[in-house]
């Protein structure tokens, strides 16, 4: 299960999981496995506004090969919205490491409820989670900054400060480093789905 909506840029703001495509930015487009499609006009307007707001060029969704993510209704919506679609290779679980990481973070977060009473409860929880994930949660894969900090170029100043602090500490206490090199923090320039296969 899973789809990741991305703009193909570093610090992509995650906005989709499973058969339900939810976004703290764009609102919910489908609900449930296979999805009951909400207004195509509303969905298109929400996606268009999101793409414009975040200057996302070449918007794409990467998903597994599950029936919900290959359904004709969903594929038609993506085609209408000019969203490119790619799918994982059959029986290759690491084809979409971003969504796998997303699910692990979501499931291990203390507030994860495992089930929801209503679809509104699910939407509310997902909106809060997506906001936290993009704006508060420090990602190890992004050198401990948030996706929003990378996306909006705030990470450069954070890394510059970290580099200055660590160099100052090394100068003051060189014995702590010995012959080891100092880690240089830098913002990622590109994000590749499967770097081993590029």
Describe this protein's structure.
There is one protein chain. By secondary structure, the chain is mainly α. The protein is 40% helix and 8% strand. It has 7 helices and 5 strands, in the order βββαβααβαααα. The protein starts with a strand and ends in a 26-residue tail after the last helix.
Give a short account of the largest sheet.
Answer: 3 strands, mixed
The tally of helices reads: 7
Strand order of the largest sheet: 1-4-5
**SSE order in H/E notation?**
EEEHEHHEHHHH
Mean pLDDT: 73
- Globally, the shape reads elongated
Strand content: 5-15%
Ends: how far apart? Answer: 24 Å
Helix proportion of residues, in percent?
25-40%
Question: How would the blueprint of this fold be written?
Answer:
Blueprint: E1 3-6, E2 30-31, E3 36-37, H1 40-53, E4 60-63, H2 67-70, H3 72-80, E5 84-87, H4 97-108, H5 119-135, H6 147-151, H7 155-172
Parallel strand pairs: 4-5
Antiparallel strand pairs: 1-4, 2-3
Key features?
198 residues; mainly alpha; three-stranded mixed sheet; two-stranded antiparallel sheet; 7 helices; disordered N terminus
TL;DR of this structure?
This protein has 198 residues and is mainly alpha-helical.
């Amino acid at each position: 299960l899973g789809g990741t909506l991305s703009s193909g840029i570093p610090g992509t703001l995650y906005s989709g999981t499973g058969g339900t495509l939810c976004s703290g930015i764009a609102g919910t487009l489908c609900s449930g496995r296979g999805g009951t499609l909400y207004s195509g006009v509303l969905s298109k307007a929400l996606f268009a506004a999101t793409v414009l707001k975040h200057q996302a060029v070449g918007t794409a969704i990467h998903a597994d090969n599950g029936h919900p993510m290959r359904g004709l209704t969903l594929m038609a919506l993506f085609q209408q919205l000019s969203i490119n679609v790619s799918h994982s290779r059959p029986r290759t679980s690491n084809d979409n490491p971003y969504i796998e990481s997303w699910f692990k973070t979501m499931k291990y977060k203390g507030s994860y409820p495992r089930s929801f009473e209503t679809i509104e409860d699910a939407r509310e929880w997902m909106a809060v989670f997506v906001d936290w994930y993009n704006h508060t949660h420090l990602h190890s894969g992004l050198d401990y900054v948030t996706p929003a900090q990378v996306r909006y170029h705030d990470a450069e100043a954070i890394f510059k400060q970290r580099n200055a602090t660590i160099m100052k500490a090394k100068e003051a206490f060189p014995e702590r480093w010995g012959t080891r090199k100092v880690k240089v923090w830098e913002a990622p320039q590109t994000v590749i789905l499967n770097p081993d296969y590029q």
